């Protein structure tokens, strides 16, 4: 599998467009399968806008208008024939994803890799019943996919580790610092860690220990300052391992271990809150302040990417 293979994608919503942008900016030709061709122009404009943002940040060697010429949008699945890698980013529904994979198997060669941008569905469940389960992998992107260095490559029970290694190598060429999940587990790495933190954050709010703002402030100013430089294990190495054992022994028994979603979260979603996208969330927003937060988040994402690149993961390793 060469470095500049032609890559297929399925789905050009916000996330799918971001993935396509990442692949195009890395020099690949991209064929994107969509359900409705009438939405193709809007998707192309969205991708061009993403490319222009990358250009403004000094991350492109070619003009966006030239790069986007490498994009083909189609509603004909047979157009993906001959592609060595196809990455889907469609609705998070196991039945719909598996139907797509069965259709892809009718046009792809047996050794072509199929990657699913699932964030929680176990890869083994997606493999079940397919002709070539060994080629199915989870390829979990962060948002925005064209900016973040994050990528998880997940093996299901039937995956061939050699396929995962191929995608890991390709991902480095996409500007990623990928993580390999060797055994299938729901939520993979980042989501399991993040939701464990969210569960405890809700526990602190619901039991009156702290407000949303106080919890956000603590996260931002404690591990928020070091976690781009180091993950938890490297941080313990840097700051002294023994102290953490003593804290674990006393704290672990008191951490929340509830198995149900927080009641207040269900109430908030039922009320129609989506966050800054509709100016309704944990915090109060006007349309203007919600728009400002979105803009700041995009700016921060680029800045934190630039900072993280100054401190590679393997700096100083033997």
Outline the structure in words.
The chain is an alpha/beta fold. It folds into two domains: 175 residues, 3-Layer(aba) Sandwich (Rossmann fold); 119 residues, N-(1-d-carboxylethyl)-l-norvaline Dehydrogenase, domain 2 (Orthogonal Bundle). Helices cover 45% and strands 11% of the residues. It contains 13 helices and eight strands. It has an eight-stranded mixed beta sheet with strand order 3-2-1-4-5-6-7-8, sandwiched between helices. Strand 1, helix 1 and strand 2 form a beta-alpha-beta unit. The longest helix is centred in the last third of the chain and has 23 residues.
The CATH class of the largest domain is identified as Alpha Beta
Separation of the first and last Cα atoms: 29 Å
List the uncertain runs: none
CATH architecture classification of the largest domain: 3-Layer(aba) Sandwich
